[in-house]
Amino acid sequence: KVGAFNQQNQKAQFSNFGDFTTIYAPGTNILGAKPNNKYEFLEGTSMAAPMISGIVALLKSKNKNITVDEVKTYLSTNSIHKNNIKQLYSNSF
Q1: Whole-number pLDDT of residue 90
Q2: Cα→Cα distances 2→35, 39, 70, Å
């Protein structure tokens, strides 16, 4: 599972958590597109999970034979532990 952290680098109030939440990504104050050429600031794990999915997609585009374990290693290597959660390090992408 992907959790969300806020702008203070803390687990967002609404976020998943626990043993099965393996990585956190930004999930608050995310500018998203809306219908009719409008934009809105959004929050949720629905904002955080696509960031992780996008990184995995980029990894797969560079190496279509990359294994799940290699993806996990990449994500883990490019994450930092901060405020008791493993956060994706913003300079990794």
Answers
A1: 53
A2: 26, 24, 18
